[in-house]
Specification:
59 strands, 34-stranded mixed sheet, 1 helix, mainly beta, single chain
Amino acid sequence: MSLNRTTSRTTETQDRVSFVQLVVPWRPARFLVRILIALAAAFLIPACKRGGSGSVTAGPSLAALFRGGTGSTGSGGGGGSVQITGQTASDVSILREGSIDASFAVSIVKPVLGANPRTISINTSLQPTVGNQILGDDNLTAATGLWVRPGATLTLRPSLDTAGTAVTLEQATVIFTSGIYLEGTIRAGRKDAVTSGDGATLNGADLLLTCNNFVSRSTGSVDTSGDDSAGAAGSGGFFNVTSTLSIVNAAAIDSTGGAGATGGNGGGALLQSASFGAYNTGAITTSGGAATAGSGGSAGLILVAGSAGGPNSYGGGFNSGALTAKGGSGTTFGGAGNLIQITGAVQGAAANTGNLDTSGGDASAGTGGGAGLIFIIAAGASLRTSGSLTGNGGAGTVGGGNASIIFLQATYTDAIFFGGIGGGIFCSGSISGNGGNGGNGGTAGAFIVSAACTGFINPGTNPIVLAGYSRFDCTGGDGVTSGAGVPTPSFLSNLQANDGTDTDGDGTPGPGLMYVGSIETQADWILKGGAATAGNGGTGGNLTIQTQPPAGGFENSTVIPNFDRSLRNSGAINLAGGAGTTTGGDGGALFMFEQYTLSSSGSITTSGGNGGTGAGGAGGAIELISNDVCSNTGPLAQNGGASASGMGGTPAVFVFGGQTYSLLVIGRTTTCTGGATANGGDTGSGPAGGAGGIINIVGTENSPSVSGTFSVKGGTSVIPGATGTVTINGVNLFLTNGAVSF
């Protein structure tokens, strides 16, 4: 049964701002707790509704790009990897079309400020006391809360020595027992240079604010940025808000480094709520400053974290603002990007519609900066993101910067006790983790998606859905001296989880039955090696797409057979090696496994790259294996690469069931109707052509249904390569010119 529920509350019309809507899991027990406490606080009521299948709607077809950078004088950068793992007894789906609704709604209401708040109506400069306080409106005792009104600026001067000098001050900390309401501007004073209170540097002070509710409107802003300079620019200060209850931020936050001959570093921004949600709709920028004669500044980190206070916390991390933590551009070095993290730390959803960017800075006469990490994490609830996720390495004339990891994670502990509904990972929006171009290309990053359960979980309620992706591209970078390979394997796996069934009859959940969901992938997978204009081609990447077989097999009474489970691929897969002027790169290997129904209709290519003076690359192995139905209707190509004056490449072989093959399609009932080529590579003036491969099509209970042409020709040369074999159910077929057609 699907529950669609929306809650809303209207308060002070002039103070209410409606934002986009969040699709979050409907969990009655937890939701009541949140509503009751929120009503008591008279502060925040998020709108909630269960998204059913993930609220996938029509949308554009996008790409996830993790390509190595191009090397203009040296080597290309290594290709990236995509690693997707489901372990929640639910399906994993990569859809070519569609988009995810990750929107949310939140009301902005003035929080309780306590009996003696400090109200800022005109521009004011304050320095906190030794006890980390400022005076309230009575001008006698500590302020219980803070209200900065529209058009007013509160400058907080540093009051604490964090540099260890004992004479200079770098940080302003203010603790309030009630709330903060920001409609105007909070600005950081400058850090000291020589003596206490001189404020003579170009660096923004660090600001740490503690309260029980933090609320800001879109008219508000926070400025801890560093100052520009003709010389070394100032660095931004760190902005940290910790709330015991909730955070709702609509203000723009600027913690950037200043621009100068050398760029200043970004400071950073942390929004952390201990008990409930952290909601951000404002733009947050912590980028490093640009440099005209040196290194660009490094970025500061950005964190939006709900329910960070412990096991009894129930809230998530929600963002719709543009979050930018990029390295500054420079001449000698580009600055490094920094971490952006959105998290429901203990028990909470994560939702993002904003564009996130942690890219490294470019360098006009040096090395580009490396990218920062992007983490979006949910615990016990759904993760939904639809904004662009970008973490590219910066470009440079000497070297490109390395990209980093983009990581989506949802974890569940004994989710069956909470109904087990509404969780999972849902993602759309462009994704990019490319290495930077340079003399030597930068290494690409990785896209990691993980949904896992510890304990028991209801099957089918916590899927992984990636919507609107036409391709995952992890190609190695082209280069001069060498094309780059794809060093880290990619995989798409769905593993078993426990459904908590009372199998021992004691009236309590467990020991349970193991359950595995299906896999569907419609996107193209491109893991090609890079090409080289004066060296070796790069190797293609390895790709595994598989579901885990139930422990104990069909006969195990504690296993759910789940006979309708399947693995379906309709995208093209290209793991070819890159071409080189010396040797060609080897193709990557493909392994697909599903216990019941495996169906693949896309073309599959694992051929080796062409060589010049050296050998052509070897074709990578292809294995399509099922214990029941195995159907392949797309063309398969596993050819050795050709060579101008070296040896022709040969298809790589592997051992299965004590026999050696290069290409295997096997199931109880097997269909292979797209044809296959496993030819040896040709050579011009080289010593010998490559040998043909070994194709084996097996139906363990039924004769396979086969059509198309199957070719295992040896490569042409003065000494031709040996012809391979085509075997169907143990019968070596007669070949004409190295091929057989059906």
